[in-house]
Specification:
- There is one protein chain.
- With 266 residues, the chain is an alpha+beta fold.
- It is 46% helix and 17% strand.
- The strands form 3 sheets. The protein has a 4-stranded mixed beta sheet with strand order 2-1-3-4, sandwiched between helices. The chain has a 4-stranded mixed beta sheet with strand order 8-5-9-10, sandwiched between helices. Strands 6-7 form a two-stranded antiparallel sheet.
- Helix 3 crosses helix 5.
Length: 266
């Protein structure tokens, strides 16, 4: 009788141990799956590019362009590259970027598109192409790309504002102390973010064309078409007094290209 009782205890312990091992295996598998799912949802930009077989230069902003070109003699990227050259090439030195172009008509391009749609949980129900993906946001059609490229790029680059000046402008020279004292970090909507202002000499390279294009886009009256001038996300400040009086306050209110309200928080 005693032997049977001992055997019963041994069997009972064995069953409990077996159940414990099964539960441990299930728990471990669940943790691994959750970790993989978390990795998929929060995959860092650099890691995602490496897993996709791409390499991104340090500090560069990846810009993805997808087109649907069936004609073997047609270049589906020509218009997009013209827009890139026109709108953001002037900022390449200060804010480097890299272009990744795919033709969804081809197998490899369609596979890349499907991967990014799943990765960033994007929707393109109407299958409108061309499409641009920048910082996880999708822009459909060349009209929308042309309209939003500059602001989306500057937002992604962390630029707060653009400042145009001339070396021989007396007001611009008088502002040197102001720019030296501008803080590197500002409090925007309760979050500390970088304060980064691009400074462009209006007569260098294509900066003259750029400032005239901005005059047109912002519908700036001729009396305000001057330097020094600062461009923000949806407005501008013309003249030394306007800039020194209002710029910092406007940036703290989230009116810069890059702010916590625009998805900032770097």
């Amino acid at each position: 009788m005693r032997i049977r009782l001992v055997k019963g205890k041994i069997y009972g312990k064995a069953i409990l141990l077996f159940i414990f091992i099964i539960l441990l295996i299930c728990c471990t598998a669940s943790c691994v799956m959750e970790k993989q799912e978390s990795k998929k949802q929060e995959l860092p930009k650099q890691e995602f590019l490496e897993e996709s077989g791409e390499r991104l230069k340090r500090g560069s902003i990846p810009i993805y362009f997808f087109h649907n070109t069936a004609c073997g003699n047609c270049d589906g990227t020509e218009e997009f590259r013209e827009v890139i050259e026109e709108q953001i090439s002037v900022y390449q030195d200060e804010c480097p970027y890299e272009l990744f172009e795919y033709n969804v008509f081809k197998t490899s391009g369609k596979e890349k598109w499907d991967t990014m749609v799943e990765e960033y949980q994007l929707k393109n129900d109407s299958y409108i192409f061309p499409a641009m993906i920048l910082e996880g946001k999708i822009y459909l059609g060349m009209e929308e790309i042309r309209k939003h490229l500059l602001s989306a790029f500057l937002d992604a680059s962390g630029i707060s504002a653009m400042y145009f000046y001339r070396e021989d402008c007396s007001e611009c020279q008088d502002m040197k102390m102001f720019w030296e004292q501008l803080p590197e970090k500002i409090n925007c909507d309760g979050t500390e973010i970088s304060c980064k202002v691009i400074k462009l000499e209006s007569r260098t390279d294509t900066n003259g064309e750029k400032i005239r294009k901005l005059f047109e886009n912002y519908k700036i009256p001729e009396e305000d078409q001057m330097v020094p001038i600062v461009f923000l996300k949806e407005g501008y400040l013309a003249g030394k007094q306007e800039i020194e009086t209002n710029l910092l306050q406007f940036l703290e209110e989230g009116k810069g290209f890059y702010s916590i309200k625009n998805g900032g928080g770097k």
